[in-house]
């Protein structure tokens, strides 16, 4: 049996009872970083006064760079007779984290697995934003290449949905600058280190938040939520609009004929 376990994105108290039980029963621990996962076990052990028997667990590193190779080398009975878990460093496996390929493998091979519900910065940030649209998109990280970033960002702000973006401290000010450069006019919500000691949240226009953050310490993981851009209002083209166009009479007559259903002779008499 394999269980995918979301881990706290900051506050250890966000771990669920079910996750703690499964971690206690696990024998094999597949994890994005063995050092991070061992530290999590150690912190939880102290916090909850639980002996996880770490010495008798087998830790195997499974991250985005070796996930495909790991899966290709799996045998049919690898998960059959062991309680295995998969952890990423923080948050929900597969959500801007490794794990999706392993889920896909289990589906194709009919291997029993469970994914536990738990913390993810995406939904938490959207809830904090207070934006009123019931639909939103999760984009994750933008491309680091400038031209690709701008193309992605223009698409995001014109899609008409609120959108959640993850960003590193190295590029969060750059992201705000890019939003200003493409004339993004809606409010945004920005959060740093959600649920952690230095949890900080900001709401307002892009310009306002840029001014607030330029003098702040920006070290940490960031989540940015863009409010939805309202759909562009369009007015149906009218007979008068077409009649005013400076185009050849024959072309104008054909357009008016299609719009009104009248034949071209009638059109010539009435409008041309």
Task: Note the main attributes of this structure.
about 15% strand; 3 domains; 11 helices; five-stranded parallel sheet; alpha/beta; Methyltransferase, Cobalt-precorrin-4 Transmethylase, Domain 2; elongated; 10 strands; five-stranded mixed sheet; about 270 residues; Cobalt-precorrin-4 Transmethylase, domain 1
Describe what this molecule looks like in 3D.
- It is built from 11 helices and 10 strands.
- Helix 10 packs across helix 11.
- The longest helix has 15 residues, at 34-48.
- Helices cover 38% and strands 17% of the residues.
- It is an alpha/beta fold and 272 residues long.
- The strands form 2 sheets. A 5-stranded parallel beta sheet has the order 3-2-4-1-5, covered by helices on one side. The chain has a 5-stranded mixed beta sheet with strand order 6-7-10-8-9.
- The chain is elongated and about 95 Å long.
- It has 3 domains: 2-115, Tetrapyrrole methylase, N-terminal domain (Cobalt-precorrin-4 Transmethylase, domain 1, 3-Layer(aba) Sandwich), CATH 3.40.1010.10; 121-226, 2-Layer Sandwich (Methyltransferase, Cobalt-precorrin-4 Transmethylase, Domain 2); 239-271, no CATH class.
- It has helices at 17-25, 34-48, 67-72, 100-108, 121-129, 146-158, 172-181, 206-213, 239-243, 249-260, 264-271, and strands at 2-4, 28-31, 58-61, 84-87, 113-115, 136-141, 162-167, 187-192, 200-205, 222-226.
User: What is the beta-strand fraction?
Assistant: 15-25%
Order of helices and strands: EHEHEHEHEHEHEHEEHEHHH
**Using DSSP, what is the number of strands?**
10
* Terminal residue distance: 78 Å
Strand order of the largest sheet: 3-2-4-1-5
User: What's the helical proportion of residues?
Assistant: 25-40%
Main β-sheet description: 5 strands, parallel
How large is the count of helical segments? 11
The average pLDDT is 90
At the fold tier of CATH, the topology name of the largest domain is Cobalt-precorrin-4 Transmethylase, domain 1
Provide the CATH architecture of the largest domain. Answer: 3-Layer(aba) Sandwich
Low-confidence stretches: none
Query: What is the 3D form?
Result: elongated
Q: What is the CATH homologous superfamily assignment of the largest domain?
A: Tetrapyrrole methylase, N-terminal domain
Oligomer: single chain
Rounded Rg: 27 Å
Give the total of domains: 3
Q: What is the SS-derived class?
A: alpha/beta
What is the highest CATH level, the class of the largest domain?
Alpha Beta
